[in-house]
Input
Amino acid sequence: MIVVKIGGAVGTDLSNLVEDLQGREDVILVHGGSDEMNRLSEQLGKPPRFVTSPSGHTSRVTDEDTLDILRMTYSGSVNKRLVQMLRSRNMNALGLTGIDGGLLKGRRKEAIRYIEDGRIKILRGDHTGTVEKVNVELLETLLGSGYLPVITIPIEAEDGGALNADADRVAASIAAAVKADELILLTNKPGLLKDVEDPSSLVTSVKKNTIDEAMNIAQGRMKKKILAAQEALHGGVVRVIISNANTDRPLTRALEGEGTHIC
Output
């Protein structure tokens, strides 16, 4: 089993992956939608706000209005567009959020520590959480019936509400829960770069015991991908690959050796 997550950052092309998935029956697909959500937020007069933790991880501030915009983009336009693209190529895709069937359940973060103007501050009441339980039985039922699950956020909170969650870490949780051999994180970069402006600075291989060094190299959103890789490996996934979505046959190329391989 392979869990593939395709990002939603600026410039990420979905069509290459869609073409590459034809004929595969061993895939669970997870997707993001950050760029489209940012643009819709601006259009609706609710500019996105992000905070950075003391460890350097960037997160979206998610109040009630932001959660509604998240639903419009991730579980609305992006998910349904991707499902339609897959089904138009005769793949039996089925779109799901973490809430559907209790697929992904998590715990709301009581507080978020972040840095602003050089000071550590506390954000409370945010609708953000992390996955603690995956409904593996539901996924097995869908896969056994010939469906390709196409999964996105929000996830379900312990109180029945909805929560924003990092899609890379969601994919890692799913990969660990279904005992996937591999987690593939497709993004708009070739992989982990020592210099984000230089594709030739690609780090091709990271061992599990040197992943902290990789975290120090990572910048911006790549930090969350390295964290997701670490969580997937701890959960029993054999290999995590971070690779380029914007090439022909991106999944095949990643499995054949392109990108950053963490194992």
Remarks:
- The domain at 2-262 is CATH 3.40.1160.10 (Carbamate kinase).
- The chain has a mean pLDDT of 95.
